[in-house]
Design brief:
The protein has 8 helices and 6 strands. It has helices at 2-12, 22-40, 45-71, 78-98, 105-119, 127-133, 139-151, 176-182, and strands spanning 19-20, 75-76, 125-126, 155-160, 167-172, 187-188. The strands form 2 sheets. A 4-stranded antiparallel sheet has the order 3-5-4-6, sandwiched between helices. The chain is elongated, with a radius of gyration of 25 Å.
């Protein structure tokens, strides 16, 4: 335990300015340009921008943390910058996964249904299976969310004649054309 205290004292006593070599700056600039493009390419760039702005600063701070932990120096190496960028990539993945929800509960619920239908692939997901999967969701909310996805063109609704009641099948937009080929008797609604 004493070693940790000594190490933290040594780190705490560091003084001066952080130094980024040209190679480190080039590494950061390369990441910056690519990450900026990824964030601004989102459906809602106005929502993405504040997250990018925070992350770009965190990358620099993480690089310093990695360097200080490694060498007790404020001269950031390319290796420390790469470690910071790798950490930022995990954060970015999480942020970009949340952005389509609009950062709201309702958006998250819509995304959940969208992903269920998408995972069903070309065959689609029956209304019965969807209802069973989301049985804890009130009926009116579930129906409204599915309608929102259909109206938004994210999900396509098909009906299929059966021996009894017609079956309702929901297919993710990217699979709709192939679904039509595989199930020519299904009627798009």
């Amino acid at each position: 335990m004493q070693n940790w205290f000594d190490l933290l004292r040594e780190i705490n006593s560091l003084q001066g300015s952080v130094k980024l070599s040209k190679d480190v700056q080039a590494e950061y600039e390369d990441w910056y340009l690519k990450a900026h493009h990824r964030f601004m390419s989102q459906a809602n760039p106005a929502l993405a921008k504040p997250f990018f702005n925070r992350l770009r600063n965190q990358v620099l701070k993480l690089a310093v943390i990695h360097e200080v932990a490694q060498s007790r120096s404020l001269n950031v190496t390319v290796d420390s910058m790469r470690k910071a960028i790798a950490t930022a990539a995990k954060v970015e993945e999480t942020i970009l996964g949340l952005l389509p929800t609009g950062m709201t509960r309702e958006g998250a619920e819509l995304l959940k249904i969208e992903q269920l239908i998408k995972q069903a692939g070309v065959e689609g997901l029956s209304l019965t299976t969807l209802t069973r999967t989301l049985q804890s969701t009130p009926t009116t909310e579930r129906k409204q969310r599915v309608l929102t996805l259909c109206d938004g063109g994210v999900v396509v609704r098909f009906t299929r004649k059966t021996g009894g009641r017609n079956a309702v099948i929901y297919v993710y937009k990217d699979y709709a054309e192939e679904h039509k080929k595989n199930h020519p008797n299904d009627v798009e609604q």
